[in-house]
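Hey Z.,

So I finally got round to the magnesium ion thing we talked about over coffee. Here's the setup:
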Amino acid sequence: MEAIIQTKNLVHTYSAATPFERTALAGVDFCAYPGEYLGIIGHTGSGKSTLIQHLNGLLKPTSGQVLFQGTDIWSDPKLTRRTRFQVGLVFQYPEYQLFEETVYKDIAFGPRNMGLDEGEIDRRVRAAAYFVGLRDDQLDKSPFELSGGQKRRVAIAGVIAMEPKVLILDEPTAGLDPEGVESILQNIRDYHTAHNATIILVSHSMEDMARTVDRLVVINDGRIPFQGTPREVFRHGEELEAMGLGVPQLTRVFHRLRALGADIDPSVYTLEQAKRAILDALERTPRKAHSGLLGERKKEPGDMKFSAPAGNGAEQASSGAGKGAE
Ligand SMILES: Nc1ncnc2c1ncn2[C@@H]1O[C@H](COP(=O)(O)OP(=O)(O)OP(=O)(O)O)[C@@H](O)[C@H]1O
Ligand SMILES: [Mg+2]
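And the result:
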């Protein structure tokens, strides 16, 4: 399948040839496919925001290329402009960018810039408001009368109203309470399903990512050390920790078990996967040796009880893993 958006050996250096020179991207080959739900994860300062600002032409490469549907977005100014509408970018804390008198006008800003007629603008504003759960009567309010969570919704609606083929969100759930997080993630999933759009989600939260995305791209020091399904990525538990990225709690427990000598798959992050991994491990181990699953090491009181029935083991391993279940 052809990538909808792609970077080739993308380099970005801020403040080049000054004492503040800083290479934020050091040759990144990134791609996203049509309809894919992709996560970008990396610690603070790793280059995530720099990368996504390249994907809709807000930043210009120091070297390398950004391709949208196979064409270099900088090859023609018309194409750069079109990419800005087709690749929608929701910044971190986008509520600080609200500035119109009413919620309606704020959401209508993007579609109006696209040169759409009033009827189409109206349809899009209402559809976008509906997606993010804003009521009709809220459209006439000043955005400044709304709560923090509602402002965030208005800002997201403003980008959705452009009906982008690719929707990129930089930490969309930052600073929200758990209910707000779940509800925004659901809005994004709804947009994904309804428009078959490509979603690129930037987050620090492995837990949010693990239960949401099809594929994870890890960024570290302006490079992509590895990418793949969440399970493939979580196999690199120790490297992720070394990069300052926590893996989901359940994954951490299973990596620890493996470090203790258990012959078990440590890439799990949902209860169902955990149960499967424990059952598989028990199957590989002769019955009488179940209590020896953790190797020859003498057991200590704090060790997990691997000789317990698998169901108990799964529950015990998952405690505190929150909504990790599929
Ligand atoms: N406008 C700028 N001028 C100079 N350096 C910058 C600028 N913006 C970012 N940087 C530097 O580039 C590097 C990558 O920054 P970037 O904002 O892309 O990281 P990030 O992964 O998005 O971080 P965070 O998780 O904190 O949002 C950092 O070292 C940062 O200090
Ligand atoms: Mg950032």
